[in-house]
Amino acid sequence: MVSARDDVFWGEDEREDGEHLVAQASILRKQEEFETMGYRDGLDIGKDSTLQHGFDQGFSLGIDLCLRLGEKIGALKAIEDIRTLKGEEANESIVELLKELNNVTSQDAFERENNTIKLSDRVEELIKRADLLTQ
User: Which superkingdom (predicted)?
Assistant: First the structure.
């Protein structure tokens, strides 16, 4: 707080310059705070957007893979069940492929290529083998 005695040591202009400097420093500090808040908000929005895109892509691939694998496993099991009902021996190629398909995990089912996720070559090969055996 400024009193009348201050005029003895500082003139009116000097006091106003000091108040101006304090106000200017306060404005700069607030500006930096808002810039920092804006930067943080921008990072949060970017992270949310990236996470959502990754989730959407992974979910779509996961559903597609589950449907395809379920279809192949069902067809192979049906073939084996029919063979069993007919009294025929198990087809070792089908039995082995069923084991491999049932052991597919999310870690070995997908691979990263550039900025996208795709089915691994191993899973694609298993699906092709299943296609050949179920035709």
Answer: Eukaryota
Which secondary structure element, helix H or strand E, spans residue 36, and what is its range? helix 12-85
87-122, pLDDT tens digit by residue? 999 999 999 999 999 998 888 888 888 877 888 899
Cα–Cα separations (whole angstroms), residue 65 to 47, 123, 125, 128? 27, 9, 13, 13
Instruction: State the SS3 of 37-66.
Output: HHHHHHHHHHHHHHHHHHHHHHHHHHHHHH
Handedness of CA 21, 26, 30, 33 (dihedral sign): positive
pTM assigned to the model:
0.60
Spatial separation of the C-alpha atoms in residues 18 and 33, rounded to whole Å: 23
Evaluate whether 105 touches 66 at the Cβ level (below 8 Å).
no
The count of C-alpha atoms lying within 13 angstroms of the C-alpha of 96, restricted to the half-sphere facing its C-beta, is 6
Helices 12-85 and 121-134: crossing angle in degrees, nearest 10, is 30
76 or 10, higher pLDDT: 76
Tokens of 114: 């550039």
